[in-house]
Amino acid sequence: MEPFEFNDEILSQYEPEEFRRGQIVTGVVIGKEDGGVVVDFGGKSEGFVPENELIKSLDEYKVGENLTLQILNLNYEERSILSERRPVLRKTLEELRKDYEEKKPVKARIVSQTKGGYNVLLKGVVSAFLPGSHSLLRRNDPIPEKEIEVIILEMVQTKRGSRIVVSRRALQDRKIEEFFSEKKVGDIIEGTVKGISNAGVEVEISEGIRGFIPKSELSYDNRISPEDVVKPGQNITAKIIELDERKKNVILSLKRLMPDPWEKVKEKYPVGKVVGGEVISIHSFGFFVRLEPGVEGLVPRSEVFWGNARKNLEEVVSVGDLVKVEVINVDKENRKLTLSYRKAKGDPWENIEDRYNVNNVVTGKVTGIIKQGAFVELEEGVEGFVPVSEISWKRIDEPGEILKIGEKVKVKILKIDKENRKITLSIRRTQENPWERALKELKPDSIVRGTIERIVNSGVIVKVEKYDVEGFVPNNHLVSEPETGKILNLVVLRIDPDEVFGGRMILSEKRYEERKNIEEYKKMVEKESSQKTIGDLLKKNGE
Prior knowledge:
CATH 2.40.50.140; 5-stranded mixed β-barrel; disordered N terminus
């Protein structure tokens, strides 16, 4: 006896009247499993909708969600199989046909990779083929989890159904073409930050269309870094400032959507106004001060100092310092401000007489040394000059023999020329004049001892013992071979006061030797005379 076989018609006779295979029902999602969702559709057993019969990605379904389903197979002992896709298939095909004719983009989800491309579901229902060359994906790229947009290139009805070919690239090309035909310089667009570099920011405007914001167009404050303005993934609004359809270049600007701080710079920073700012960079020619983001000015070196311009600017200010400056020029067209540091501090020469008078003895710092003398700073912006003749009571060839840069010294004010901003100073006049005692105690023919300090062409310079003064011994008054450090016995030939050096003294070793010889001769004669007289007496007594 042949076994009895059930066909669909016989099975449907034994199914409850309320359910039939092919029937459209409403199901409620009660769970999710690998490969599909579990639903309650009111039958004796629960139902299962396989993933390939769903119209969305599996992770998009939520427990409690209502679905419109078609019964594919009833099973009262285990699970019935249902489809969400089939009830909408016919209607979706009609919609897709219309989209194809009107060349409208449609939503697609890539479900698998196959030879030459990818299998996709259109609107979550209709199968289609996406060629690899039209996918905008590399062969080893992961399949996108989210839906993508495509346009239908081909839609043919066959005996087995519809054969549909779609393209992602064609849609992108069309969007790019539309973008460059519709957009113009000055338009405002939205985009997402995709990359940040020192040069600027890359922005995705839409799929396949990227723009670039140069660093200079991120902010009016060009000294801040791109990372301070935007973050990766941030949605931004920007202004188109350049379009090149041939190169597909889109140059954008953020700062041009902001108020330009230079528009009101003349009103905010008029000439003569003293304002505060931050030192942002220092150069040999001056330093820059930022008054506000996007507005900075230059303090030229000539506007830093009232006096000693030989200083390094780093001795006056440091990057990051908050300083007061006076606006001295505004060039709005070229976006340039010229500022003065010294004018904001005030001119120290205006009331110089309130602080310094002739014959005052004050302390200053040596700031410069030249052959003619030394510069001494009394305070910032007030500097005096010590002529070489006023450095020491001794004769010196170079001020550097006595002084060093940065050394603190006491000086006496000899002259103040306020009009020409000059002060003449003396270091030696703060010390006792050694020539006063020498001139008082020494006369021509005085005998002294001196140590050779320097040998010059015409003679030697000696330091006179017991007197902190120097004397000169001409070559024709030297007897012994000159040698530095050698001590000589000398006779003063001449000693005179001197307005510049305090005094002058001419000495002679030769005269000393001559006097010495004369003295010795006198002693010898006296001795001989004395001996002769005694001899004569003895001789006389003997007689």
